[in-house]
């Protein structure tokens, strides 16, 4: 399997796994700062267990190899996590998704400026089409914008794009072990903010364990490896699928049916990504035949 296809499969699988994120955040009935705190604490354990399972007795060497770039990835991922949760707390989810959908464009600009990566025109076109589709999904929710929530959402988009771009700068190193450190940073910042740790009831703890101990560590471990094989803009472009799948899950389990306009936007995002993937496969076949 070539590196490009491997990167696509790893990232797409990771996105599918984290798709229930928005649904479970709606189900968990805790203050925002406590969700951030418990998400951080459980992420530490979840990501660390994955590192141990992958590297066994040499798990500590996985951290030594990440160097300063790994510390930067951990910090940026923490900012993205906090921004996403608090953005949804202070403003409508639609506003957060509109701003978060700018992550592929931010990643493309960062990659172009810092890594001198030239993206093909089809990637830029796919980014623009996806932004249009995401805009349709949440257009009805953009009337009650909160500047504070929007600021947190922008922090989430910048953190996500920056993390993937920094990981892309060292494709020879697996940065996913540093996501455990990110959970520790997230929990520490949440504790400084709230000043206390509130033990959730059994139901909320169950949802937190599912989301933060299993789904997030497994999904983001896969996604974090995407920049080893793909430009960061392509990885964050695939992350837009979470918006579509997350909307469908909320519709299925909470009976919140998207509008016809929202369904159209989701179809546009899916078609843009599928079309781009098809063009990539066609190009790879032509290169293989010519070679």
From TrEMBL:
UniProt KW keywords: Membrane, Transmembrane, Transmembrane helix
Spans through the membrane: 36-53, 65-87, 93-115, 122-139, 145-166, 178-194, 206-223, 235-254, 260-279
Location of the EamA domain: 6-138, 148-274
Pfam family for this entry, one: EamA
Highest taxon of source: Bacteria
Keyword Lipid biosynthesis in record: no
Extent of the signal sequence: none
Name this protein carries in UniProt: EamA domain-containing protein
Native species: Oceanisphaera sediminis
């Amino acid at each position: 399997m070539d590196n490009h296809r491997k990167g696509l499969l790893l990232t797409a699988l990771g996105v599918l796994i984290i798709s229930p994120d928005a649904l479970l955040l709606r189900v968990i009935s805790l203050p925002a700062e406590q969700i951030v705190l418990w998400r951080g604490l459980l992420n530490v354990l979840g990501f660390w267990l994955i590192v141990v399972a992958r590297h066994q007795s040499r798990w500590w060497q996985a951290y030594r190899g990440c160097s300063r770039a790994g510390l930067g990835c951990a910090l940026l991922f923490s900012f993205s996590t906090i921004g996403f949760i608090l953005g949804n707390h202070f403003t409508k989810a639609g506003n957060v998704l509109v701003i978060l959908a700018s992550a592929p464009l931010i990643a493309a600009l960062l990659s172009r400026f810092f890594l001198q990566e030239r993206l093909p025109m089809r990637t830029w076109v796919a980014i623009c089409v996806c932004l249009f589709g995401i805009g349709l999904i949440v257009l009805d929710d953009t009337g009650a914008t909160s500047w504070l929530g929007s600021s947190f959402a922008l922090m989430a988009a910048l953190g996500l794009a920056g993390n993937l771009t920094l990981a892309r700068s060292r494709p020879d190193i697996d940065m996913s072990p540093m996501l455990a450190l990110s959970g520790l940073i997230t929990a520490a910042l949440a504790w400084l903010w709230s000043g206390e740790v509130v033990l959730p009831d059994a139901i909320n703890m169950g949802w937190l364990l599912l989301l933060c101990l299993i789904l997030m560590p497994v999904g983001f471990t896969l996604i974090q490896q995407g920049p080893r094989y793909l430009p960061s803009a392509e990885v964050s472009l695939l992350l837009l699928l979470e918006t579509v799948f997350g909307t469908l899950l909320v519709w299925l389990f909470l009976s919140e049916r998207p509008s016809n306009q929202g369904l159209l936007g989701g179809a546009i995002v899916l078609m843009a990504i599928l079309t781009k993937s098809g063009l990539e496969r066609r190009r790879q076949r032509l290169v293989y035949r010519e070679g």
